[in-house]
Every structure is written in C-alpha cells, then in structure tokens.
Amino acid sequence: MMYRPLLLLIFLVSGTALAETRQPDTAVVNQFVEEMARQHKFNAKQLQQLFQQARIQQSILDAISRPAESKPWYEYRLIFLTADRSRGGVEFWKNNAATLTRAKQIYGVPEEILIAIIGVETRYGKNSGNYRVLDALSTLAFAYPPRSQFFRKELTEYLLMAREEGLAPAGQLGSYAGAMGMPQFIPSSFRRYAVDFDNDGKRNLWTDNADVIGSVANYFKQHRWQPGEPVVVPVKVHGERYKQLLDGDLTPRYTPQQLMDNGVILPKGLSPDLKGSLIKLDGRDGPEYWVGWHNFYVISRYNHSALYSMAVYQLSQDIKSRRMKLASESSPGKQ
To answer: 51 to each of 3, 60, 173, 299, how far by Cα in Å?
Structure first.
C-alpha cells in the first residue's frame, strides 16, 4: 500500500514528460522536405532521417508566449542592468581589447555597444541556450501557427547555413527561438552578417570571440550605424501634443524642432539635422520619456523593442563608466 502513491507519482511525472515532446506532423514535414529538395537540392531521404530526430517541445511554445519584453521597464531593466553583467563587460573588454578596437576602426561601432549586445544576449557566452536548434525551429515552424511562416523560413536558412558551414544540423544548440552562439544570431542573420574576423576559415559564433565581435559590428554597420552620432537622450514633456508622437514606432521621423513644437523639452546643442522618435517607458516612480535617435533605432534592429535597446544602451554606458573608473584608480599618479 505504501508503494502505490510513489508509483502513481512516477507515472504522472513520466506521462507529463512524454507529453511535452513529440515528433512533428509527418504530412507537414513531408511537404517541407519536398520543398527543400526541389528548391535547394537537398537529399530528401537524408532530410527525412534528420526530422525523425526532431522533437516538438512544449517548453519552447511556453517560452515564446511569455517574452521578457512584456514586462514593464522597471522590471525588465533589472534583468540586464546588474553589477555582475557590468563587471563581466569590463573583463570582456580587457580580454578582447585589440579585437574590439579593430572592429571599431573597420565598422565604426563603439566597443561598449558591441560588448553590451553580447552581455545582454548571453552574458558573454555563459548562457547561449540549451535547446537543439533543430528542435526549436521545428517546434515553431510546425507547431506554432502565429509565426509558423517566419520560422519555416528560418528553418530553411538553418539547413542552408549548416550545409554551407559544414555543421551537423542536429548538433547545434541555441535559444528557444533558434538563436545561436554568443550574439544569438538567428540563421538568416548568421548567413547574412556573420564574418570570419580572425581569418581562420570558419565563422564560429559559439566560441570564437573575434568572429563574435566582428559579426555584431558588421550587423550594426549593415543596418547603417552612424559613428559619432548620439543614441538616446532623456527628455521632459509638457502640454498634450507630445502624446500624438507616442505611437510605439521607433523609426526616427522627427527633427529636434518638430519634437519641441510638440511639447518635448530637449537639451541644447543638438544638430538640427537629427531625427528621432519619442519613447515612453514605465519607470518605478512614473513614466520616463526619451528621444531615440537613428542609432537607437539601429540597436532595435537586433530586437524590435524599445526596452531591449534601452537596456543595451544603459548597460554599455555602465560598462564604459566602470572601465574608466578602474583605469583612473589604477593610474600611476593615483594616491
């Protein structure tokens, strides 16, 4: 009698685990395989064997339904703006200083921005994902109707990428959304923006810091990062007209004069040729207002969220400030 509850518990737990994974629908997979064979000259039999290994995972579907960007800013920022992540950024800068300088010279992107992206994405490679990319993309391509079309495209890109790079498609790990390596590139971004920055003949975004740094810098340059231009500035507002600018669109559309004409109070000395967007964030003590310029929009091409872009920018500034402080404290003339 004493064993029955334990046996029942084991049965329930095992049943739940089994229910969390399953193979993709055969008919859907067959259609996809036929397309890949016809359009990209893949071996249909080999792809069938590959997808027999793929698993639809409920945990992936759960994760994509509750992204961190759904949190208010005052909670979201606490995830990324931590002393540990800032210290890690300073250490990453120290260990990769020459590569970061070379990337800035070639692509025009400041070192602290590159570091902050890698810090926000994976804490400098400490958390680059434990899902098989094959499972993540199969789950979202074949069992997540809201974005199945997008992820079918990414699954196609992944198989092409694996073939081009000589990678085993069932052996790569990434996020629940199929993002890979230290900078969390999705397959289409990998194929388009990844670079072999150390010229060793491979584009390795998992363990090669040089390729990671160069690839992120190239991503930003290709999205038209403007060296020397501002990123974002805190502002105050008055009246009611500014509210018509708060449409959630981060595309920089308004000149400083247009912003001021609508009740946005800007700092002095801004170039009249700048264009920005007005952003409202939920601070702990009330709303925060910011103007994001073109380079803020460029950051948002990595993740289309004002929260994400702000976290990257603020982490970059904290890393830069912390590094300068440490340098000052260790200078020969410091008492």
So the answer is: 40, 17, 16, 35
Token pair recorded at residue 94: 């120290």
Tokens of 291: 């103007």
pTM score, two decimals?
0.90
Residue 45 makes CB contacts below 8 A (sequence gap 6+) with none
- Alpha carbon distance 33, 48 (integer Å): 7
Whether residue 7 is predicted with pLDDT greater than 50 in this model: the reply is no
Angle 97-107/83-95 helices, nearest 10 degrees? 80
* pLDDT band per the 50, 70, 90 thresholds, residue 14: very low
**Beta strand 286-293 pairing with 173-174:** unpaired
Contacts of 46 (CB under 8 A, 6+ apart): none
What span, in angstroms and rounded, lies between the C-alpha atoms of 253 and 179?
30
Residue count of the chain: 335
Residue 314 has φ and ψ, to the nearest 5°, of -65, -35
Give the pair of three-digit tokens for residue 97: 């200083």
Mean pLDDT to the nearest integer, 37-56:
96
| Angle at CA of residue 185, ends 184 and 187, nearest 5° | 135
Pair 193, 215: CB distance under 8 Å: yes
Residues that are catalytic: 121
d(CA 156, CA 84): 37
Q: Which domains does the chain have, with CATH numbers?
A: 21-65+130-191 (1.10.8.350), 227-300 (1.10.530.10)
Radius of gyration of the chain (CA): 23
Measured in whole angstroms, the distance separating CA 176 from the mean position of its chain's CA atoms is: 12
